[in-house]
Amino acid sequence: MNTRQSTTTSGAFRSFTCQSVHIHGFSCEILAVCEDAPAATPDLRLSGEEMALMGIQLVVSLLAATAMQRMAPHYSFARWLLCNGSLFRFKHPTEGELCALARMQMPKQNRRDRRQNGESKPLTVPKDIDLHLEKAPVNVIDALVLHFFLEYQWLVDFAVYATGVYLFTECYYSAVDASKEVNIGAIWCVLTVLFSLKTLHTLMSHYFHSKEGGERSVCLAFGFLSLLVAMLVLVVREDYLEFGLESGFSSLFDNLEIFAKQQGYADWSVPVTKLTVKFGLAAVCAYIGALLAFPGLRLAQTHLDAVQMNSDRPLIQILLHVSFLSPVIVLVLWVKPITRDFLVNAPMGKTSVTIVSSAAFDSLRLWIIVLLYVLRLALTRYHLQAYLNLAQKWVEQMKKEAGRIAAIDIQRKVTRVFCYLTVVTLQYLLPILLILFSTLSLKALGDFSWRAGAETVTPALVMPTSAPVHPGGLDEDEEGMDDMEEDIQATVAHLSATFTTLRSVLTPLFFRGFFAFFTCCCSS
């Protein structure tokens, strides 16, 4: 991520800053306008909605992007997570150590020990030797050579800064009325979800390009299973699964038709039906199911190993079990008869009692999801250490077998566990990031609230029939003003109209249905 900044002053009225931000292969130019003198003419003064595009949220977003670039070489949360000294890897034994344990001398190479192709015979040792692997803390030098380490570091650091921007926007929205501004924190959350999907796709593509077809078959099997489950879920009525897809897509289609009529397309109608949209959602679920096939299998294995590793710590075991069951809990939260109906209209004999209000239940559901996946993040070390212990576990299993084994095979088995560490870390963290940031997007774009009883759905804005026109007449003494000022004003006005139109079509009802379904899809 590279940042380039240049400042140009035209006249005595305004200065503009051109900020070019390159993030993970994407680049965008952002123009920020500031007033240098209070005597600016009203002809070039921007309205409140236009200035909202260049408010304090954008400044904080640029600061976060710059800090991410500058701080990454010096401090990285992703690097600290793996290399803080709490994780221990196992070193592979040398040939000399294996020979000493087998009570044999190092073989000397001679002509009789050579094969016909010119390669020497491999050194073999008995499998039942008393081999104990040496532990060593994972450090930065060891981690830099791991596969996918750079992708892992960039994505986790981006998620950390996205969380910071989101927390700032939440505080900002609670302090001032910023309903007309673009929620930059929600954009960062959506970008985190997209980057997580991209990284999962990169991991899955390696399975499809491998010579062995076993991994490919597993991904396809999970994808078709997810497709079947999604098609069954989408035919269930909203009385049982309250995703809100029906109301969300009804709102989207109605707003699209209204927008088309305002643009002069009186005979235009939505070219797709709700059934087609549901087939598209089922296909998305199948794709996500294929992406999460191996992360799910890896989580099950590391969970069992982590529970066995902490057999003498019952509290950690309870937390591990709660963390493992968190996807099931998330799914149950959207089953209306079990959760909402039970809490909002709790049966008490012949009457019903309201334990929590409907708005309070929406807030409670968001809090439960966030807390569950923060717990999973806190238990990351136990799962990763359980994975690293597979090297010693394999050695213990080898000791129970008879026969001989090549020394190079022992070294490869032990080394391969550590070389796969960042891939396992991504497989553990990416599903957490998907669900956590999709929940934050659901809260921000769906107009939910963290406070109980504060539910408000922002109504659809009035869609402009044409782009806003600003008076263009200038006094004679201002005829020499740079044309760049007018270009900036026109660009900001165009962006303002574009965002207003998008917010009019993509209402909070649509975002509620889409992100609720997406969150449950990632959980399943």
From TrEMBL:
The keyword Ribonucleoprotein does not apply. It comes from the Eukaryota. It comes from Monopterus albus. Coiled coil: none annotated. InterPro entries: Transmembrane_161A/B. It is found in: Membrane. This is Transmembrane protein 161A. GO terms for cellular component: membrane. It is a multi-pass membrane protein. It holds the Pfam family Tmemb_161AB. Its main location: membrane. The chain crosses the membrane at residues 154-175, 181-197, 218-236, 275-294, 315-335, 355-375, 417-437. Belongs to the TMEM161 family. Keywords: Glycoprotein, Membrane, Signal, Transmembrane, Transmembrane helix.
